[in-house]
Amino acid sequence: xxxxxxxxxxxxxxxxxxxxxxxxxxxxxxxxxxxxxxxxxxxxxxxxxxxxxxxxxxxxxxxxxxxxxxxxxxxxxxxxxxxxxxxxxxxxxxxxxxxxxxxxxxxxxxxxxxxxxxxxxxxxxxxxxxxxxxxxxxxxxxxxxxxxxxxxxxxxxxxxxxxxxxxxxxxxxxxxxxxxxxxxxxxx
Length: 188
Fold this sequence. Notes:
By secondary structure, this protein is mainly alpha-helical. Helix content is 62%, strand content 2%.
């Protein structure tokens, strides 16, 4: 296979040229060879890596885990146990997110059922949202800010420390949201 320009390589791998540049900038694929005019050129190896990344992203693996998987893929002396550990952690995280989504769906379904949805100003949904926000506000602005962490466009989250356990951990924002949805489903 001859070398392909970025558009053709992206099409062959099933990703966009923007993602090719992004993965290259992250170091997931090696820096592309360049023509004398500065155009990027990609070979079979890079296209195979891009397909690998696309498949991994399709399974929800975060970039850090994709880095680990790529490293293991390239290592002929790897142990399948190491690969399985990465996959087991991802599966546990997906299952935890699914539990959170199920809980959110259940709470939202309950709120929708309680709302009359007519011409009156009374709305059970708004009342429930306001009532759930009151305990956080009463605890003080610092606690509320910590519980519901805001991420602004352009900001990057700090790199997470890699955890050797296979137990799922909820993200701080998800934990607060999960606690709130539990409070809606089971009022005190």
